[in-house]
Amino acid sequence: MKTMLGLDSISAAGNAATPPPGDLPSTPCFPWMERATGRLAALSRKVSCTSVCFLLALSVAVSRASAEGIPEPSLVMYGVVYDALGVRQTSGTLAVTLLRPGGLPPLKLQANLANINDQFSYVLFIPCETELPGFLVTATDRLKLLATPTNFDRSAVTFNDVKILYTDSTFATLSITSRDRGRLDRVDFSPTGASDLDTNGLLKSWQIANFGRLGVDPNGDPDVDGMTNLAEMQAGTNPNNPGSRLAFVSVTVIPTGGAQVVWSSEPGRRYRLLRSRELLGGYQSLGSPQSATPPANTYVDNTATAEGSYFYRVSLIP
Fold this sequence. Notes:
Blueprint: H1 31-68, E1 75-79, E2 93-99, E3 107-112, E4 122-126, E5 128-130, E6 143-145, E7 150-159, E8 162-163, E9 165-166, E10 173-176, E11 184-186, E12 189-190, H2 204-211, H3 229-235, E13 248-253, E14 259-264, E15 270-276, E16 284-291, E17 296-301, E18 311-317
Parallel strand pairs: 1-11, 5-6
Antiparallel strand pairs: 1-4, 2-3, 2-7, 7-8, 7-10, 9-12, 13-14, 14-17, 15-16, 15-18
């Protein structure tokens, strides 16, 4: 059995008058009938007025509700939350506070992090409502949108109650109009903000921690372990230690059938194991992605029972 390593990284009713017993004449010549007819006419006018007044009040209420209570698409923020080493976070709480003009209280929103399509960390919905002439937005649980741009300060952001920064500082101010309802904004966060990502693709903090300087070659391999500095940073390994690398530890054939695959792992990382019957291609995922269990992860492949070779590859999920 052979192995290979790869880094891949929604009706009015009224009471009718009761006539006296006996046959009624064909004309209203009796006083009781005149009185009854008068009462019925008055009742008819009263019911008619009541109905009109009720419908008018209902119409006003519906009209007012239509202006103030129509749900509107939220503004959507989504993106990645990184740790100090540039690793995408998939658990924890992101809290964003928006400061509103006009003396209104701040709007505080939260999102629980998750692994979203193996790409993103969070989705946050910001409720909005458009103010129309004669109908003011008085609700405090949403942003008031106008035809002209309104700026909201959203620089106060925390991750697990610790301050975190926008990787693009221009997103710290939100400028929107009523035409921006339903807009999607990709917004990423990092403990060190935009300044930590160097032009070479390496985090400045990682370069300082491992080399004491900036300007490190991302394609360099100072410990000659087959992993570039960029790959070492992504994998969480030590770029100066040849024994610290993402690699298979062992692949053992199980006598009763199958194979046990073991590879090195680092805290906070997630991996995907792939298998193929051919060396150069055709790799398919085995099982679900695995979170790191340092110093190594183990997977038992019970389906590798046919005759011939099986090739394995482990990928880092960013």
